[in-house]
């Protein structure tokens, strides 16, 4: 019996997936905080406990994400694009285009029949192209991020955002609140803006169906619906899409260079 663990150390949250003999067995997620090394130690300890294991039972640990290099106990680091492609291929082997909406960046990649990323594009450094924009607006509207998707689906008159900048977008949202605009209409407008950026990335990569969405952003039903509307196709979303990259790391049996 072989146990491996993949840890995705992100800016907002750290995800771990425990794999038993090549199959996902346990999932765990915690807030990343400000010390990635301590966070990785903690998530590994907690997922081992959930799996009723000793940490010494886990034969291989692979890390990915922005804080991967700070995890000293890992067998190696794996590029997040390679992990995303591998994770999606395991969960949805027929998918050829992947949209990943994370906290600090959004990515669109093409995946071949072997689960390798063959082409990709990332959002610009501005937060308006990724999940952080949703977090910012949720804070302005005094909402939990988990409320955003369902609430936006009730919008009657979505409010277009005139700017592609997260800082100005936040100011615009504050102004709309002061004017009495419904929260759901503001959220729907944010989803429209983010979905437009995703569509631009899809056009650059070239959409090949089937297409999937993963990452924490895939849990947002409002964003999912807007992206589907923009591309005119149904998006495939695996169960617990936020763990896709960590799963891809766990499935690697040797270090894979970043793409």
Description:
With 259 residues, the chain is α/β, with parallel strands linked by helices. Helix content is 38%, strand content 20%. It has a 5-stranded mixed beta sheet with strand order 3-2-1-4-5. The protein has a 4-stranded mixed beta sheet with strand order 8-7-6-9. The longest helix has 23 residues. 47% of the residues are buried. The C terminus is likely disordered.
Summarize the structure.
With 259 residues, the chain is an alpha/beta fold. It is built from 8 helices and 9 strands. The longest helix has 23 residues, at 183-205.
What is the secondary structure topology, with strand pairs?
Elements: E1 3-9, E2 13-20, E3 23-31, H1 36-50, E4 60-64, E5 76-77, H2 80-91, E6 97-101, E7 106-111, E8 117-122, H3 131-140, H4 145-152, H5 166-178, H6 183-205, E9 211-214, H7 221-231, H8 244-250
Parallel strand pairs: 1-4, 4-5, 6-9
Antiparallel strand pairs: 1-2, 2-3, 6-7, 7-8
Helix pairs in contact: 2-8, 3-5, 3-6, 4-6, 6-7
Q: Using only CA atoms, what is the Rg?
A: 18 Å
The number of helices is 8
Mean pLDDT: 91
In terms of per-residue confidence, which ranges show pLDDT below 50 for 5 or more consecutive residues? 254-259
Helix content: 25-40%
Give the helix/strand class: alpha/beta
The shape, in one word, is globular
Distance between the termini: 31 Å
Order of helices and strands: EEEHEEHEEEHHHHEHH
What is the number of strand segments? 9
Strand order of the largest sheet: 3-2-1-4-5
- Biggest sheet descriptor: 5 strands, mixed
Strand proportion, as a percent range, falls in 15-25%
């Amino acid at each position: 019996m072989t146990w491996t663990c993949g840890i995705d150390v992100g800016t907002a949250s750290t995800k771990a997936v425990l794999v038993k003999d090549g199959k996902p067995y346990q999932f765990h997620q915690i807030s990343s905080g400000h010390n990635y090394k301590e966070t990785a130690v903690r998530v590994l300890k907690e997922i081992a406990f959930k799996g009723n294991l000793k940490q010494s039972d886990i034969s291989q640990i692979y890390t990915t994400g922005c804080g991967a290099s700070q995890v000293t106990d890992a067998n190696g680091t794996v590029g997040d694009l390679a992990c995303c492609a591998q994770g999606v291929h395991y969960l949805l082997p027929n998918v050829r285009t992947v949209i990943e909406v994370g906290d600090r960046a959004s990515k669109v990649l093409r995946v071949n029949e072997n689960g390798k990323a063959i082409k990709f594009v990332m959002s610009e450094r501005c937060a308006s192209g990724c999940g952080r924009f949703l977090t910012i607006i949720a804070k302005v509207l005094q909402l939990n991020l988990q409320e955003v998707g369902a609430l936006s689906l009730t919008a009657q008159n979505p409010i277009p955002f005139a700017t592609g900048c997260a800082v100005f977008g936040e100011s615009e949202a504050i102004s709309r609140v002061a004017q009495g605009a419904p929260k759901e209409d503001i959220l729907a407008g944010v989803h429209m803006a983010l979905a437009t950026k995703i569509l631009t990335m899809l056009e650059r990569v070239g959409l090949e169906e089937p297409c999937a969405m993963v990452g924490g952003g895939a849990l947002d039903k409002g964003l999912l619906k807007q992206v589907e509307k923009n591309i005119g196709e149904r998006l495939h979303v695996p169960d617990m899409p936020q763990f896709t990259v960590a799963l891809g790391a766990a499935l690697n049996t040797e270090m894979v260079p970043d793409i």
